[in-house]
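ok trying again, last paste got cut off:
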Amino acid sequence: MVTLFKDRAPSGLVPIDKHFRSRWSKRGSHEGHSVWKSESEHDGTIHGELVAVHIESCVGCMKCVDACPTIVFTKWVSDLETEVVDPSGERDCIFCMVCELVCPTEAILVSRDGGSQETLDSLLRSE
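nice, full thing came through this time. structure:
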């Protein structure tokens, strides 16, 4: 049976480790992107490199799927039998950061390389 949390967050939910690229290790790949794990089994799994999703923090609300102007995310049933998003199209990311902004659990982290901070700043400016 697939679990879908939608608008409620499970207890113990933590945001993605913003320093995972230097603290965690690549332990494999899935759909063409990296799969990361920390030394502790309790930290969960992160999928992606340019666009990373902490699988255990994703509640399956699909807000990022709806907000993404390209097709970065796909629905996926994780090893924990929960419906989550997978950044299978991360190479199509335009670094607009909208997915990070709409994620209610801070499960998504977009790489800040390549001018993405300027893109975010321009989106947040009120004219």
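cool. The chain has four helices and seven strands. Residues 20-124 form a domain with the Alpha-Beta Plaits fold (CATH 3.30.70.20).
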